[in-house]
Amino acid sequence: MPPDWRPIAAIVSSHTQPPCPPPAQEREIAHDPVSPWVVLTRSMSKGSLADATTNRKSTMLGRPLIVRSALPFVLLAAIAVPAGSSTGTVWHYQLDPASSAVSARVAFMGIASKTARFPAMVGSVTLAPQPDSQEPRSITFDVTLDARALRASDNVTLKRLKSADFFDVENHPKVRFTGDTIHMTGKRTAEVSGQLTARGVTRAEVMHVTFGSDPLASRGATPIELEGRMRIDRRDYGMTAWSLVVGKKVDITIRTRMMPR
């Protein structure tokens, strides 16, 4: 070869020689079946677009380029948590005692009725929405009444209601309803299933609820007004006295305003 051609031959030879193999550590990563980078390195070995762009530049450096991308973790996160998921969202409300009232009405003598009122109460509601649905995923409805503060239309009725024949407020001062399941029956109506405790007895009951507006539209930011109705058999709670005079079915109504908290 003429002496003047030797520099040109050296340049051509440096660009035509095969690239050096990657270090042992990088070869292990590229072939490790459990490594997240194996997805990308395999696609590059098949002549993908990434191989056509990044490998061309890496060859000029004398070794292939291994790109450690976060893409596999992004894809796994997208599969694990679907777009628009509200799984962790919970809206909390507190009962406003000044705007709440509970009454219990029972037939009397077959031609009239007696009503007990419970002005003292505390309570809360939590709603958890579910994605792409017109009803909440879950509910926690908790209202406690102070039976010692109940009111009646006359002193005789008040004394009997507070006695051991009915609420027995001296031994059982609280009446409580806790709801844990909700089923929407309309845009603003629902059935809330839970447990009612009165006079020391706890039984499963269902409250039929009517919301003042779509409960999901509040999104935990504006008050919710609701009315709940429930019919129970007083005998189920040990109130068996005066069966010939006082009716067996009791209609309970709660009207309340729930404030966001």
Which key terms come to mind for this protein?
elongated; alpha+beta; 37% strand; Lipocalin; 7 helices
Tell me what the structure shows.
The protein has 261 residues and is an alpha+beta fold. Helix content is 23%, strand content 37%. It has 2 domains: 3-80, no CATH class; 91-260, Beta Barrel (Lipocalin). The protein has an 8-stranded antiparallel beta barrel with strand order 1-4-5-6-7-8-9-10. A hairpin with a 6-residue loop joins strand 4 (121-129) and strand 5 (136-146). The protein is elongated, with a radius of gyration of 36 Å. The N and C termini lie far apart (89 Å). 18% of the residues are buried.
The percent of residues in helical segments reads 10-25%
Question: Helical stretch count?
Answer: 7
What order do the SSEs take from the amino end to the carboxyl end, as H and E? HHHHHEEEEEHEEEHEE
Count of all domains: 2
Structural class: alpha+beta
Provide a brief overview of the structure:
With 261 residues, the chain is of the alpha+beta class.
Write the layout of secondary structure elements.
Blueprint: H1 6-16, H2 24-31, H3 38-45, H4 49-60, H5 71-80, E1 91-95, E2 101-108, E3 112-118, E4 121-129, E5 136-146, H6 155-162, E6 174-184, E7 189-198, E8 201-211, H7 215-218, E9 224-233, E10 246-260
Antiparallel strand pairs: 1-4, 1-10, 2-3, 2-10, 4-5, 5-6, 6-7, 7-8, 8-9, 9-10
